[in-house]
Amino acid sequence: MSNPLLDMDGLPSFSKIKPEHVEPALDALLAESRQVVEDLLAATTEYSWDNLVQPLEQMEERLGRVWSPVSHMNSVVNSDELREAYNACLPKLSDYATEMGQHEGLYQAFKQIADSVDYERLDKAQKKIIDNAMRDFRLSGIDLSKDKQDRYKEIMQEQSGLTSKFGENVLDATNAWKIKISDEARLSGLPESALGMAKQIAEREELDGWVFNLEYPSYLPVMTYADDRELRREVYSAFVTRASDEGPHDKKYDNSPVMEQILALRHEAAQLLGFENYAEKSLATKMAQSTDQVLAFLNDLAERSLPLAKQELDELRAFARQEHGMDELESWDVGYYSEKLQQHKYAISQEELKPYFPEDKILSGMFAVVERLYGFKVSERSDVDVWHQDVRFFDIKDGDEIRGSFYLDLYARPQKRGGAWMDDCITRMQTVEGVQAPVAYLTCNFSAPIGDDPALFTHDEVLTMFHEFGHGLHHMLTQVDYPSVAGIGGVPWDAVELPSQFMENWCWQKQALADIAGHYQTGEPLPDELFDKMIAAKNFQSAMQMARQLEFSIFDFRMHLEYDPAKGGRIYEILDSVRQQVAVMQPSPFNRFPHSFGHIFAGGYAAGYYSYKWAEVLSADAFAAFEESDIFDRETGLKFLATVLEQGGSREPMELFIEFRGREPSIDALLRHSGLAA
In terms of domains, do 487 and 370 share one? Predict the structure, then answer.
């Protein structure tokens, strides 16, 4: 039987990939990869880059390319059959990774190269790959006794299944809940776009009236605009209790035991490797030097932002009481009255901005930013096989050369996991035919077009799109030819958000908005009056938002730092302690946000969610270089391209930042951009 995963030449044939292809393809590739390793080790006793590392890079790249579309489709067009095939492969991948990490012959071969005179002749990227490999052998348990290696392997396998289960429970709980509204009076306050979407969801499900679900484009307008307080409470309660022991959900989706098991396994694995806890292990591959340094950074930001955050909440409470007779604010009231306060102070709302941000105008403007900074052009292609009819495909060109390409999947839909992310489809690599251009997936969950209108986005969604495109540029513009350190490969997790958050800055610049914004009906540019209001409102409740992000970051880090096997995860005990420190408003007692906190329980951010805040320091300071000259200064743009985007993980991020800025990063720009500077 022909298998499109094994017959891949270039881009994946998504329309041909079926669940029954997945496991046979992976089995064949893993067997082939194991054989390649043994053949390489047996072929010589004098190992070098050319006879060992380069062939291994190519082998791992092939394995990644075959698994990439499977993993991606599991996230964006999930089905029972695909999920079953995907989950059947996870323990096999885990076994293989641990086996390679604990392979004594492979370890000794790498050690020989690292200790040889030839090591000094390698370029920086090649040395980095050898150094990373030696570190990763240790982090895979190469120094452990046989029984401890076996236990480590079991832990990795169990963890892989549990993190997948966590994500599935969140997706299933999200998909299972909806509320049908028949009485139009209950929809008072909701904008036309939200009503149109709710009507569209109802029609899709062959129901009368309006239907709201827990996909973010449906959830957020209810929390922001619905005058019906009981409707807000009901939707909020369902959202914050997804996949938990609380709320209106089927308890078969409850992530409580999954979270406990994940934390226990992470801690056990860390201790097996000689770390005190998982937070320490997490930092072994990050920029931060110690757990004390991370907590000091977060606590310092908390001290700076908390006084202003409390003032912002006091202002909101006073406004709700004086203007709307609301004596006591609950969690489901905050978004609603914040929107009213913002309109009261600045006469602006996200909804008012949406007509100026139609999909194609945003994209052309975003591509114009890239052209002005780096000289590259972005063009769409329609001859590419995609996984859903809404997906688009683009090339980034430097003259006639394709530097990289990307799929763009913008809209929320059932069977697609929530959030926004970038992932790699193909990684840059030097082959006998030439350079293999990198390809990225850019995925968001925005509102789809309603009726005959194009998709219209809020400014917050524009920021999200630029953010993910920034990740994509990091992957696609790399000039490193070795997959494991090309693009985002090998980049420490607390530096990987720098290019993404850096890109967001152009969404606030008048020169850039001339290209990004234009009324979808008239083409009229964003009026100066609206722009001025937008800038005035930029830091509206920014201290409250900072405090909320710090709550997530400190909670994540402390939960992994303070884990005690005798006491279990103490998830909500630690969260309550963190909230006493940094939360300006205590959420409802039934709130179970950790149960759907996919970043740390199903993503790569465990004991690393602080990365967002640390990268904001880097990105704000990097953008300050443009503020000091011109936001479209080509010389500064090309310097950022050369020192950050093109280097991938081939060098330490602090070294690259210093090369760009001429000094170590300063927190001043972040405080200024966030309205927190004294």
Answer: yes
Residues 435 and 546 in one domain: no
Question: The pTM is what?
Answer: 0.96
pLDDT of residue 678: 58
Backbone angles phi, psi at 590, to 5 degrees: -85, -5
382 with 416, same domain: the answer is yes
Degrees, nearest 5: CA angle 554-560-562: 90
Q: Which of 178, 231, 230, 237 is nearest to 591 (CA)?
A: 237
In 3-state terms the chain splits into helix, strand, coil percentages (rounded to 5) of 60, 10, 30
Helices (H) and strands (E) in the chain, counts: 26, 9
What pLDDT is stored for residue 460 in this prediction?
95
CB atoms within 10 A of CB 285: 16
Say what percent of the chain tops pLDDT 70. 100
Helix, coil or strand: residue 609: coil
pLDDT, tens only, 436-474: 999 999 999 999 999 999 999 999 999 999 999 999 999
| Structure tokens given for 303 | 């001290």
Q: In this structure, are residues 491 and 648 in contact, taking their beta carbons and an 8 Å threshold?
A: yes
- Give the C-alpha separation, 548 to 555, whole Å: 11
Which are the catalytic amino acids?
A: 468
pLDDT band at 344 (very low <50, low <70, confident <90, very high): very high
